[in-house]
Each structure stands twice: as C-alpha cells, then as structure tokens.
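ugh ok fine here u go
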Amino acid sequence: KQGYDLVIFDTKGASDTLHNVIIGFATLCIVPVQPSVFDLEAIPSTANMIKSLDKPFTILVSRCPPVGNEFEKLRLGLAAHGFVCPYSTVERKVYRHAAGLGLGVGEYDEKDKAAEEVKNIYDWLVKTEEKQNSLKVAS
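structure:
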C-alpha cells in the first residue's frame, strides 16, 4: 500500500499470533535450512504451519559444504515437504567477513562466488514471485 513491491520479514519459524499475522501478509514465504539435524527436524512443522495458512513457500538451502553433492541429496529429501529453490549457498568465509562489516557479500566483493550465489537466488525468487503474483519487483 505504500508503493513497495517487495518487503522481506525475517522471523523465526514459530507458530504464534505475530508470526501468523506476518505470514498472512506474505505472498511468498522463504524457509531457510542448513544441512544440520536441528534445521532438518524443524522443516516438517514449519512447512505444515505455512501450509495451514494457505501460503506458497520455498525451501532455501544454505551453508552447504563446499565439496560433495550434499545440496542435491538435501534437495531430493526436502522436496517431500515443499518446493525447494534450485540454488543454494555454500559455506564460505566471505559471508562471515561481509556480515562483520555490516555488508552483503555483493557489496563486500562483487566478484566472489558468494555474490553470484546470492544473485542467482535473488533473481530466481523475483521470477518466482512475479509468476505467482504478476508483480514487478525493482532490482
């Protein structure tokens, strides 16, 4: 209503009144998950909460090991709970370094692989959002 096409709320994966209200306004929910037992155990309840509010969502895998095919294995396993973003992030030092300076990885080093990872995810999310809602999102 204020002229914004894209607003991002970062909340914990909890089911309470405040989170339900925020999710109620969402046109697309992003559920980040790391390849850890705690995150993976939380996915079913988080996915069910969002589904109960009849909202579209995607699972975004982050902090994958830099070697191996863990993302593909996770992606296949997580697909049972919802739509998984085809892009992920890899555990890289640059994320910590940039965050320590209050910067995004693209601001910190636009040529780093991490900046490309984030750009791919952002571009995919914008396209997904536009398809779902016919919104034009400014880049």
